[in-house]
Every structure is written in C-alpha cells, then in structure tokens.
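hey
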C-alpha cells in the first residue's frame, strides 16, 4: 500500500518508527489570485468555482457534509477531500484546520493565523513581507503544539493554483523545477505555469531571502507549513502530505533553517502523496524530489480502477490526482490501522 520512490533507507526507518502510531491531521487553507488565471487549475471548473474550493473542502473535511458550499464542479472527477475525510473520520484522527489567508471566511471551526490571500505571483508582490514573517512565527508555534498532539503530524494543504506558486518558489530557491511539477489537469500545463512564473521572477532580487521569495511569488500556506515542519520535526515525525507543493515547502523549510540557523530534524520529515502524482507521465515528481534532495518521497498505491463511481475512476485517467492531504491520509490509514486497498476504497466510496 506504500511505495518508496527516493531516499529508501530514510523512508524505511521513518515507516518503522511510526507504524501503528496515532497521527494528527492538520490542513492549512490558503488562497492566491494565481488560481483565478483561466485554465491554470482544474480544482474547480471555472475561476469563480475556484474561489470556493478551499471553503467547500474544509466543510467536508470537518463534517462530511457541505451545508453551505457544495464541493465545486470539477472538469472531471471528485474532490480528493473524500479520501482525507474517509480516513480522518473512520480512524478518529485529531483534526486541525488553519486559515492561513483566505478570501472568504471558512464556515467550519478554523484557527485563524492572521494571514491574507496572496496576489497573483506574476505581480512579484504576492504578500507583504510583514505577513510572511508573522505567518512563519505562527507556523513555528503551531508546529510545536501539533507535535504534542500525535506521534507524527500530517501537514496538508488546500490552495488552488498552489503547484504554480510551488514552481515559482522552487525556481527562486535555485532548484531546477521547470517541466517537473504536477497539476490537477490530466496533461500538465507546463508552458502556462512557466510563463506566469517568469513574469513574477523578473521582479525578484537574485539575493532575496527565503522570506522575500515567498513575499514575491509564494502563497500563505507555504510559509506556515514550512514553520510547522521545522518546529514539529524537533519533537515528532512530519508527513508533508502532497506532491509538488510539499516538495516546495520542504525546500523552503530547509532554506529558512539555514538562513536563520534554526534547529530542526530533517530526518524526521517525509513527503507522502498519491501514485497518481508520483507516477504522473506529464509531470516528473521523482526527478523533482531528486532535485530537491534529502527528503524521501513516498506514495500510497491506492487505486480507483475498480471503483463503481466514474468520478473516482477519473483519477486513473490523470484528473485531480491529489489535494487536501489525500495521499498522506491514505498512507496513514495503512500505517495506523493496517487498512487494505479494499477497506480504503470502501470507506471513500461511502463518503461519495
């Protein structure tokens, strides 16, 4: 149920330590106007739909229902929050939802971190530097708390357009990420993403600090989860639940730890995603993980090929792939209670 793609020795050691242990599940919500660019993302069929994706996903993650905002219509498939909700609810994982910077207030209990939505990264002025620094401090504080709430922390996100901001941050950090990121489209829109990123990076000082990079071309989730990962790693395990976006978060956390000379434990951190991301033929996630270096990339081997629902079978055609910590939740389901493919699929179909 779990495949290791990079850093096998580190990954196997991590899995051995945390097998059978209770994790805590945290989801950090954020928003960037980058997600409103036509066709930049399939996490909502239209730009208007994408304004509500994080709000609707948070509702479903917390309650298993959508009394206020229905899950937005997608180009194809169904929201990956179905996977996360199935695991969190049935395995009774402690759940924390954070508002790092949303344009619309969440309708379920969420911890506000005092952030704000980001401008489109193409402006080179995504967030005020003061906001970035504040969010980092909040991330550090909550990372300490999450490390006390479970044996390891699953850190997930919901940011529409987040793979594009991830590409921008990775590139600004000096990592060759061009044509390697993923997207919610069946065929990744690499050229569109790169054009947006190039527009933003032309405003960036080559000597910019990691904080200034996020302020220029990032999103509010990235800096929060980087802080959480640094702080939590000192006391517990960390599963960064996502693909491209969490590779960017790890690279950002490492850059900040070096820049600020912070104590952290990178060996306590892994990245967990879905095989639809790890084996995406139109992205190159494994190559990106190798370019980032140091961090193990794992993926759940969950399959929807035999699902009775066409919305889930669409994942096998390359739609959606990941989000809201779906891959990390599926990994945890197997690690914590030994769920099989059949048990996990049954729980997800029950949610749908």
């Amino acid at each position: 149920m779990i495949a290791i793609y990079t850093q096998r020795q580190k990954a196997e050691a991590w899995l051995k330590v945390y097998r059978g242990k209770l994790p805590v599940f945290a989801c950090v919500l954020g928003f960037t106007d980058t997600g409103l660019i036509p066709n930049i993302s399939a996490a909502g069929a239209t730009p208007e739909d994408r304004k509500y994706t994080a709000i609707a996903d948070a509702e479903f993650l917390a309650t298993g229902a959508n009394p206020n905002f229905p899950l937005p219509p997608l180009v194809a498939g169904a929201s990956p929050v179905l996977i996360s909700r199935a695991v969190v609810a049935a395995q009774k994982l402690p759940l924390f939802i954070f508002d790092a910077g949303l344009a619309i207030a969440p309708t379920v209990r969420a911890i506000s971190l005092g952030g704000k939505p980001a401008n489109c990264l193409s402006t080179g002025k995504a967030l005020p530097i003061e906001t970035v620094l504040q969010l980092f401090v909040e991330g550090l504080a909550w990372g300490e708390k999450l490390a006390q709430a479970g044996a390891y922390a699953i850190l997930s996100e919901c940011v529409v357009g987040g793979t594009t901001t991830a590409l921008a941050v990775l590139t600004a950090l000096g990592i060759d990420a061009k044509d390697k990121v993923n997207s919610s489209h069946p065929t990744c829109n690499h050229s569109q993403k790169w054009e947006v990123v190039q527009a933003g990076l032309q405003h960036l000082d080559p000597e910019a600090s990691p904080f200034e990079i996020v302020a220029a071309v990032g999103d509010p989730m990235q800096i929060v989860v980087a802080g959480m990962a640094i702080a939590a790693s000192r006391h517990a395990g960390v599963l960064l639940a996502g693909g491209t976006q969490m590779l960017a978060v790890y690279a950002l956390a490492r850059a900040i730890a070096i820049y600020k000379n912070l104590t952290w434990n990178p060996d306590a951190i892994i990245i967990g995603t879905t095989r639809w991301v790890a084996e995406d033929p139109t992205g190159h996630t494994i190559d990106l993980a190798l370019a980032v270096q140091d961090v193990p990339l794992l993926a759940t081997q969950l399959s929807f090929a035999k699902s009775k629902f066409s919305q889930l079978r669409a994942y096998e055609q390359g739609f959606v792939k990941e989000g809201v910590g779906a891959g990390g939740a599926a990994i945890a389901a197997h690690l914590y209670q030994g769920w099989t493919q059949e048990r996990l699929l049954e729980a997800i179909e029950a949610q749908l």
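The chain has one domain: 2-351. The first helix runs from residue 8 to 18.
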